[in-house]
Every structure is written in structure tokens, then in C-alpha cells.
Amino acid sequence: MNEKTLKGKTAVVTGGSRGIGKAVSYKLASLGANIAVIYAGNEEAANHVCEKIKNEYKVEAKAYRLDVSDFNACKETVTAIKNDFGTVHILINNAGITRDGLLAMMKENDYDAVLDTNLKGAFNMIRHLSGTFIKNREGCIINISSVAGILGNPGQCNYSASKAGLIGLTKSVARELAPKGIRCNAIAPGFIATAMTENLIDNPLLQSIPLGRMGNTDDVAEAVEYLVFASYVTGEVLKVDGGIAM
After folding, report:
1. Are 181 and 130 in contact (CB under 8 A)?
2. Which of 22, 27, 144, 159 has a C-alpha 20 to 30 A away from that of 57?
3. Which of 26, 39, 111, 159 is the catalytic position?
4. How many Å apart are CA 34 and CA 60, to the nearest integer?
């Protein structure tokens, strides 16, 4: 992956049909990678992403519906992707949900759902693709964490815990798989303009961003591009946050 091309490579992007995942899917496709777009529910959006990838970037793309929190379903989907594409070289763990609420009133199901999707989902995908990466003696894993996992965020103890857990998972995976030629890094976005953050437009925390604006999904996609080609970087957490967590 030293050259600025991913031709012949296959990337799996969870949560790839919208927001950050969609931007990452387009970015990797523009670099020549074939894309397996993992989505949770919106088949039309996922198929739209795949069609744009095939038509504009002239690479292969296919959508797979998956609840990433389901260990066995992840195994089946990984098998299907390998049957369709031959192998996998890049994994972007981007799938994530929020169930915000104050700690004193948070429902157990809301806590569990966020941890199961955001953290266990990443483990499930890494677990089922690690054998492929080890066999290939090559692999790039990028986990989309959040500055909420670094700073914490009131009303988001479940989300912050899941994103902090991703950082710990990233570092452990990086240490364990580095001898096999596999790299694992995390990206910690700050306030990025997506459907998930549209209710944060008036959040006073936005005033504390040193660069004075929210980020956009392309900012994160560019960080993904950097880490995909950064062959001597592993176990790192790259903040894309306008300086809010410096």
C-alpha cells in the first residue's frame, strides 16, 4: 500500500451508506479499491452508494445488510464478502449509534445497544477478518472512535464508553497483529456535520473549537486515506476535531 493507489484491494466499510462511512467509501473507491458497503437498515441508500462507486470510480461495490453486534451474522457476512471479492485488505469500523440520556435516567437497553453496536461490532468484524489478514500478511484496520471517548461528554456515558473502548481495542489489536504485518489505528472525530449531529448545531461546545467550525465528512475521509497509506503507523489515535481535544 505504499503507492497512492488501492487498485486490486478490497475495503469493508461498516456504516458505509451514510455520513462518515459514505464519504470514506467514496474516498477509498476513488483510490481504486473495491468496496463492500455494510449497512444496517436503509437498503436504498446503500445501493445508491454502490451504484455511484461503480459508475464514477469504475470499481466493484456491493451492499451487505448486517447488524454488526451479531457475532455469527458478522461471520456469515465476512464469508460472503470473501466469496464475492476474493479477499479483504482494509477494514473500516465506522458503524455507530447513539442513545443519549443522563446517566441517572439511562435505560439498561440504551446502554447495551450502544456498546454492542459501537464496540462489540468492531470486535466482531476484526475477529472474523483477522484470519484473512494474517493469511495475507497484510491488513489495515481503522476504527472510527470519537473525541467523546477521550474527553467524555455529558449525556453520553454509553457513547463515550464505547468510543473509549474502541481506543483500547485499537491499541491491543495493533500490538497483537503488528508482527503479522497488520496495522490498526483509530480516528477520533470531533463535531462532524452529519445527520447524527444535526441536533448539536446550537451546542455551546461548538464555541470551544479552536478552528471555529464543525468538520465535514471529507475531513475524516482524508484522515482515513492518510492512515491507509501510512505503513509505519500503528496503534495511533488521530484526532480530527478542529483542535477541541488538544
Report:
1. no
2. 144
3. 159
4. 5
Q: Which pLDDT does position 1 carry in this prediction?
A: 44
- Per the rule left: phi > 0, alpha: psi between -120 and 50, beta: everything else, 212 is left
Q: Which amino acid is at 181?
A: G
Residue 184 phi, psi (nearest 5): -140, 120
Torsion over CA of 106, 123, 43 and 53, rounded to 10 degrees?
A: 130
Q: Mean pLDDT across the chain, nearest whole number?
A: 95
Cα separation, 21 vs 25, in Å, equals 6
- What CA–CA distance (Å, rounded) separates 57 from 60? 9
**How far apart are the C-alpha atoms of 170 and 164, rounded to whole Å?**
10
Instruction: List the domains of the chain with CATH numbers.
Output: 10-239 (3.40.50.720)
| Cβ atoms of 245 and 218 closer than 8 Å | no
Active site residue 159: yes
